Amino acid sequence: MSWLTLLLNGRPNGLRARLRGRSTPTTPAPRPTPAAAPEAAEKALGLSKEAPKDVNPPDGFEVVLHKDALEDGRIIEIIIGGTAIAVARIAGVHYAVANTCPHAGGPLGDGKLTGNHVTCPYHGWKYDVTTGACLTQPTVSVKTYRVQVVGDAVCVEL
Ligand code: FES
């Protein structure tokens, strides 16, 4: 240790070092747990129950929702594994389609669900969420995803 460092900082176990130790914590403050984030997102979506974490989905499927989280007649956007899907519940059965409207990219999960039909919030094209067929432009369709309920979990094949 040079005399200049000693002059500026003091001795390693001296009074200044001890005072620095009081003002600078040696262990970082605890960070918020990431587990809290999904619950906050589910609440923000208006979902009443969180997706079960103790379910093993079938091969190729991902758990997306608790089976009772979404009310009948509702549709929501869920991003799972980097893919945005729209999940709807109709008469107790869940359906999943691509979230992006082929017309101009509207988010179908933010659309209005009437019966089997979701209306895109951007320009009003209608899609049948059970088949993916577009009712407005018959040559167009959205991708559908297979859905299975395992225990309390709604699982979607991605
Ligand atoms: S983006 Fe969906 S109808 Fe235009």
Give the topology:
Layout: H1 3-9, H2 15-23, H3 36-44, E1 61-66, E2 74-80, E3 83-90, E4 93-98, E5 112-114, E6 117-119, E7 126-128, E8 144-145, E9 147-150, E10 153-157
Antiparallel strand pairs: 1-10, 2-3, 3-4, 4-8, 5-6, 6-7, 9-10
The structure holds FE2/S2 (inorganic) cluster.
Main attributes of the structure:
3 helices, 158 residues, binds FE2/S2 (inorganic) cluster, Rieske Iron-sulfur Protein, 16% helix, four-stranded antiparallel β-sheet, alpha+beta
Mean pLDDT: 82
Structural class: alpha+beta
Main sheet strand line-up: 2-3-4-8
Distance between the amino and carboxyl termini: 61 Å
Regions with pLDDT < 50 over 5+ consecutive residues? Answer: 23-37
Beta-strand content estimate: 25-35%
CATH class of the domain at 48-157 equals: Mainly Beta
Q: CATH superfamily name of the domain at 48-157?
A: Rieske [2Fe-2S] iron-sulphur domain
Approximate shape = globular
Q: What is the annotated CATH architecture of the domain at 48-157? A: 3-layer Sandwich
How large is the count of helical segments? 3
Walkthrough of the structure:
The protein has 158 residues and is of the alpha+beta class. It has a domain at 48-157: Rieske Iron-sulfur Protein. Helices cover 16% and strands 30% of the residues. It contains three helices and ten strands. The protein has helices at residues 3-9, 15-23, 36-44; strands at 61-66, 74-80, 83-90, 93-98, 112-114, 117-119, 126-128, 144-145, 147-150, 153-157. The strands form three sheets. The chain has a four-stranded antiparallel β-sheet with strand order 2-3-4-8, with no helix packed on it. Strands 1-10-9 form a three-stranded antiparallel β-sheet, with no helix packed on it. Strands 5-6-7 form a three-stranded antiparallel β-sheet, with no helix packed on it. Strand 6 and strand 7 form a beta hairpin. The longest helix has 9 residues, at 15-23. Bound molecules: FE2/S2 (inorganic) cluster (FES). FE2/S2 (inorganic) cluster (FES) binds at residues 101, 103-106, 120, 122-125. The site of FE2/S2 (inorganic) cluster has 10 residues, from loops.
